[in-house]
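Researcher: Last one for today. Full complex below.
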Amino acid sequence: MGLTNGDVEKLETIIKHARPLRRGEHVFHAGERFQSLYVIKTGCVKTYDAQGKHQVLGFHLPGDLVGLDAIDKTCHLCSAQVLESSAICELPFQRFEEIASHLPSLQHQMYRLLSKEISQETEILLLRGKTNAEERLAAFLLHLSQRLSKRGLSATDFYLNMSRNDISSYLGMAVETVSRLFRRFNDQGLLRVSHKHVEILDFAALERVSGMVPISAQRQRMP
Amino acid sequence: MGLTNGDVEKLETIIKHARPLRRGEHVFHAGERFQSLYVIKTGCVKTYDAQGKHQVLGFHLPGDLVGLDAIDKTCHLCSAQVLESSAICELPFQRFEEIASHLPSLQHQMYRLLSKEISQETEILLLRGKTNAEERLAAFLLHLSQRLSKRGLSATDFYLNMSRNDISSYLGMAVETVSRLFRRFNDQGLLRVSHKHVEILDFAALERVSGMVPISAQRQRMP
DNA sequence: CGGGGCGTTGATGCTGCTCAACAGTAGTGG
DNA sequence: CCACTACTGTTGAGCAGCATCAACGCCCCG
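Model: Here's the assembly. Have a good evening.
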């Protein structure tokens, strides 16, 4: 990661360790004073905007940081809720900045993390950009699958720890549509779905439905 | 801004100044090697993903930085194109990091900028979250109006320097729908629209249509 | 065992996409 | 300066994808 053992040790001194949270509890609420970032060690967190009608903004997996959108502000803009029992580390931002100010490698890491968050959101925008619901759900599943496999989990077989309602809000469609599409994908043999358990049977077909460029062909574009 | 004159001077030494670009020219293309961030001095830039069907990702105004999503990568993921004659400053990122590594105030500024970009994208996600097209276009116009007024321009009277096509892509609807909605808003007396020129006549009504919480009531939420 | 939340399924209607033609604007060269 | 073309924007008609409403089954919880 570019951090020496010494760097990590310094970081360790300020991190408040693994406060375990149970399903439904909040990491932070919108409107609360911003003081810390939060690192997800295990579990899953959703961020949402309560303004109006509970718009889901993102699902965050182990290794992700949440709270990044508030650095610029005094208060958190969105709320972060735990979807399953999760271990969350608190990283007081001001103290982090003090330590990082003398550690260029740590600064660099932070820039990368923030940048990664931006490109993450860009991907979500692309996902949402798809006009029809079928494409969006297919793209969502592929994206999730990819993120899980990057974390050493199965890309083909996983549990959705968010509700259908959360998915529908995230993808900008009705709950009923999500339900019907899961059934359709199941019947067409793309997936095997039962409740929260999803098994991807036909990646190629799912990619075709999603209208995405298959990952294998991603890097071939020219300047 | 928290930067001393000395800090600014150091920054000035690495900034490559105001390369003027004309309408249609690119700041960078997707796939190009990432080396610099770009500051918009004057004009307007759109970012888009060419992958597939030219999905517009954002419109950027003076003061904004573009290219932030590539810090984490070796190449730019999206393309950035100038919508009107614009002055763009180039900020070589590696040299920036070298200088910033000894200037905590500059680091802090950079964190804020990156964070601001993240919350910007969150706002866009919220905007896109609206189910019907009417809400999205109204929210888009209000958002743009707000950004313009923050830059000292008129909040009620402005020129759209992007095409209807760009707007439709950005908002995830058909061009025809954008056109029809402009006409409807015009006929209902919310706006006066003629070609690229927009004059907002009834903010309250537009806010009602957008389903947004009026700005006046924004800060009243409780922790 | 009863209740409440979540997910599924069905019927219906409307919003907004698609296709198509046209108008209006800008850009080009004679 | 005007004619020609190409592009962008507008308008209309028709269809369908999906939201909405409603009812019901299922699972988890007390």
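Residues 104-129 of chain A form the longest helix (26 residues). The first strand of chain A starts at residue 16 and ends at 21.
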